[in-house]
Amino acid sequence: MPNTTSSWIAAINERSTKDLEQRKAWYSPVVEAYDRARPRYPKAMIQRVIEVAHLSPDSKILEVGCGSGVATIDFAPLGCAIEAIEPNVEFCRLVEQKCKAYPNVKIISQSFEEWQVEPQTFQIVLAANAWHWIASDIKYVKAAQTLKDHGALVLLWNLSLQPRLEVHQEFDQIYQRYAPTIAPRYEDAETQQEILQGLGQLVTDSGLFNHLISESVACEVTYDIDRYLDLLSTQYITLDAPRRDALFAELKSTIEQQYNGEIQLFNLAAYQIATKK
């Protein structure tokens, strides 16, 4: 596995080592920005997941770490029962508002670590850009325990949104001036595909799931300045205010002056489905 891929996976899995109380409150300062800025999953990909996982109104889904409900609201219209676990209370309130029209959606304000396993209850355990927040020695075991026979683990991913290479290089000069330690690495489509392969290998290596199916979709979105800075604010929560403000001010000026106030971003969205052994 290339160093870039190994480093990426190590970086995201580092989140699972944070103190539980810290994880619960991690996004509290940026809940609204998170909901505005984080990318959605392609509708065709969600439909593909429904087909491959054989979801129906009779299905029962456990969602781990629903966040602001980006994926919850994609599956709720099926009418199936969804129990969505989310440790951040502000996110829970937001998802409850979004899902008012779906009485089969139940929001549980709790971490997956604290949640009491309901043995062989669910057809699907779903995690959308959240699986890396749970320690590997906990998440696969609890997922397998709560799944019915032949149930499936469904992981959704939106990998990091990337500007064009030349834009990234220009932005990197700004990062080097204000916050070099957080300057993002550039990920082309090949690198992101390798990252997805690495994430899928982690599922297989757990020894509890097999028959992994993985598909990815190349996505392109346009962000205006405000939404782009909202996105960055959800990534740089621990960056001190003076450096963050200076960084954001120059990024904003550059986007306004050179890119007409908008930026084109690219990434891979993907699903991975593995069956309980």
Rg on CA atoms, Å:
19 Å
Mean pLDDT: 94
Low-confidence residue ranges: none
Sheet having the most strands: 7 strands, mixed
Detailed description of the structure:
With 277 residues, this protein is of the alpha/beta class. It is 43% helix and 23% strand. The protein has a seven-stranded mixed sheet, with helices on both faces. Strand 1 (60-64), helix 5 and strand 2 form a beta-alpha-beta unit. The radius of gyration is 19 Å and the shape is globular.
Summed up, what is this model?
With 277 residues, this protein is an alpha/beta fold. 43% of the residues lie in helices and 23% in strands.
Features:
alpha/beta; 23% strand; 43% helix; seven-stranded mixed sheet; 277 residues
Question: Helix and strand layout, with pairings?
Answer:
Elements: H1 3-13, H2 20-25, H3 31-37, H4 43-52, E1 60-64, H5 72-75, E2 81-85, H6 89-98, E3 105-108, E4 122-128, H7 136-146, E5 147-158, H8 165-178, H9 189-205, E6 209-224, H10 225-235, H11 241-258, E7 262-276
